[in-house]
Amino acid sequence: MSLYVGVAGASRAEPALLDQAEVLGRRLAEAGAIVVCGGGPGVMTAVCRGAQAAGGTTVGLLPGLDRAEGNPHLTISIPTGLGQGRNLLLVRSSHALIAVGGGFGTLSEIALALRTGTPVIGLATWSLALDAQRVDAFPVAGDPDTAARLALEAAGSRRPDLANPPRDG
Prior knowledge:
globular
């Protein structure tokens, strides 16, 4: 059974961040993971380009209804027609989520993942402390290799739990 690793990130990003996202996609594909993302430009294109270059599979959960809106490095384009609602699909279809840079859309995906028990790894993204002791809600990696390793470890340990997600109180 393959691991599905979601990648959330900005549709507009600086070249250095896009380079990191491309390396991240390559590392995930080299490890045999299927990369799931929003299917659009920016970080999503870069991570898919990297995964595709390494022979990996990429899945784009598109916000609209037109497959042609997906980036050219998608193996599978799924038009959801859900707009930002697709963020929940991304989180729920992933064994782990890597947040790369990003704005409020990425922040919403981080929050959904934390809320549903999906492991989150950050790469040049939001940092969230949950208490007065400033304990981070999720690890933020310093480079794409570390982000990929942490996400794959988290995804591998979570795989059986997808059938029985944690219940909210």
